[in-house]
């Protein structure tokens, strides 16, 4: 009987600490935001490489990130709190990264079909 109570207690404690609170974005939302951020970064790096005038300090990413967060109707703090939540659990973070990759591949495949 004692082990039953200990088991129930551990189950309750682990479910409370691992619960997805209201501030944490779901994996589906996070993957879309992270994909948009990575595309934004790639575009910015491409533009910087093609620019013939050296730029001392590039701050264009701040505007791009703000536009992405606005588009997804979230705040910067909420995104980074959610990211920290996923980074705490390696399995959840791995799932998030894999879903971003799969989402990107799906978008690339759909755009390839459209262009053909």
Q: How many structural units, i.e. domains?
A: 1
Structural class: mainly alpha
Q: Largest sheet at a glance?
A: none
Strand content: under 5%
Mean pLDDT: 80
| Global geometry | globular
| Uncertain parts | 1-19
Q: Write down the Rg.
A: 20 Å
How would you characterize this protein structure?
With 116 residues, the chain is an all-alpha fold. It is built from five helices and no strands. The protein has helices spanning 2-17, 27-50, 60-71, 76-88, 90-115.
Quick overview of this protein structure:
This protein has 116 residues and is mostly helical.
Secondary structure blueprint with pairings:
Blueprint: H1 2-17, H2 27-50, H3 60-71, H4 76-88, H5 90-115
Helix pairs in contact: 2-3, 2-5, 4-5
For the structure shown, list the relevant keywords.
mainly alpha, globular, 116 residues, 5 helices, single chain
